[in-house]
Design goal:
The protein is an alpha/beta fold. It is built from ten helices and 15 strands. It has two domains: 2-116 and 292-324, Quinone Oxidoreductase, Chain A, domain 1, CATH 3.90.180; 127-266, NAD(P)-binding Rossmann-like Domain (Rossmann fold).
């Protein structure tokens, strides 16, 4: 038996509880992992509270990421005792997730934990940091360097945005942070932002082409914000888009793309190829040693994550929430 969060929905309604299951209840996958840490992401909070239809089948263990140690393996890629981590692939949505003491998953969903990274450190970074790094690597691949000019990060005080600001600053970029949280300015400057603008400057309908301001962008907001960011990118620049906090629509013009050669780079973190995952996590291990993460992450127990999910959706949590599933 092992402890986990379990979300269920039936004639009695929608509910999440901390309960126990048997290993036989984990039917997916060929590698059994003894989970050490998971984390609480926005999608996890939606799943736990039922505020959005994230979960595809019930009952479900939520948790879109985790780190731990291989306990059983029918795969040639991983052996008992290997330290591993996982992000995405429908875990916590279609397949039993990481807010649990045990997880059984397909071997090709896992990657080896970077040698210099602890399981706690990995989940302190979590899906948010991993997604931010995928965005930065996409801009780099496109040719955007610190010498290219300023990079704007929208939704900068959110999970992905915060990591994007910090990582870009550590890599030598000049970062403009866009946020609607006036009380987060000191936090963003501490992360490495050199300039802060109010999100209201970008969130309303704008022109097809606007003043060229930034060499590149990382956008987790979508909708009018993404359209205005694209309209304000310098000639030959690029925008890495990874979120939809403002909306899924894109009320934009083709003008920035055909008149200024701007590129829109779509970033998916869920089904990303393993090779890209390995590169991203290795770079994260180099840039974010454990000492860098201590002030960012709060560690809570498994049962506490139910209450924390509501707080996260209400904007009452800043920084990362790591879940010690064995506490």
């Amino acid at each position: 038996m092992f402890k986990c969060l379990l979300v269920d929905k039936d004639d009695n309604g929608y509910r999440t509880s901390c309960t126990q299951l048997n290993e036989d209840d984990l039917k997916q996958g060929n590698v059994l992992v003894k989970v050490q840490y998971s984390s609480l992401n926005y999608k996890d909070a939606l799943a736990i509270t039922g505020k959005a239809p994230v979960i595809r089948s019930f009952p479900m263990i939520p948790g879109i990421d985790f780190s731990g140690v291989v306990e059983q393996s029918d795969s040639d890629e991983f052996k008992v005792g290997d330290k591993v981590l996982l992000n995405g692939f429908g875990v916590g949505e279609k397949y039993m997730g990481g807010l649990s003491q045990k997880a059984k998953v397909n071997s090709d969903w896992l990657i080896a934990l970077p040698e210099d990274m602890s399981p706690l450190q990995a989940m302190s970074i979590g899906t948010a940091g991993y997604t931010a790094m995928l965005c930065i690597l996409a801009l780099e691949k496109y040719g955007i360097t610190p010498k290219s000019g300023k990079i704007i990060v929208t939704g900068a005080s959110g999970g992905v945005g915060s990591f994007a600001v910090k990582l870009l600053a550590l890599m030598g970029y000049s970062v403009v942070a866009s946020t609607g949280s006036s009380d987060q300015h000191d936090y963003l400057y501490d992360l490495g932002a050199t300039e802060i603008i109010d999100r209201a400057e970008l969130s309303a309908p704008g022109k097809a082409l606007m003043k060229e301001q930034w060499a590149g962008a990382i956008d987790s907001v979508g909708s009018h914000t993404l359209a205005n960011v694209c309209a304000s990118i310098k000639y030959g620049g690029a925008v890495a888009a990874c979120g939809l906090a403002q909306g899924m629509d894109l009320p934009a013009s083709v003008a920035p793309f055909i008149l200024r050669g701007v590129s829109l780079l779509g970033i998916d973190s869920v089904m990303r190829a393993r090779a890209d995952r390995v590169v991203a996590w290795q770079k994260l291990a180099e840039l974010l040693p454990a000492s860098e993460m201590q002030s960012i992450a709060e560690v809570i127990g498994l049962e506490q994550s139910i209450e924390a999910a509501s707080k996260l959706l209400n904007g009452e949590i800043t920084g990362r929430v790591v879940v010690d599933v064995n506490n």
